[in-house]
């Protein structure tokens, strides 16, 4: 399976925040956008990855190891989760 090249850093940040259990509204506030924008982006990711629900999206993300150490998101993970970056 090829990951949709339209998935960008914001999508990976959304996935990281979803993994942390944040609501769409909270994710929107953390990323300075509306919760409907977050919902729309989540729907686009579900379509891109060929799944029909948020739970299935989480399983697919885990299966594809999209949020593993060394990938795009971990550089932002501490900041997004409200933690100080490592070494600060």
UniProtKB/TrEMBL annotation:
Alphabetical keyword list: DNA-binding
Keyword DNA-binding part of the UniProt annotation: yes
Signal peptide region: none
InterPro entries the record matches: Sig_transdc_resp-reg_C-effctor, Tscrpt_reg_LuxR_C, WH-like_DNA-bd_sf
UniProt-recorded Gene Ontology molecular function terms: DNA binding
HTH luxR-type domain ranges (all copies): 4-61
Protein name in UniProt: DNA-binding response regulator
Protein source organism: Actinacidiphila epipremni
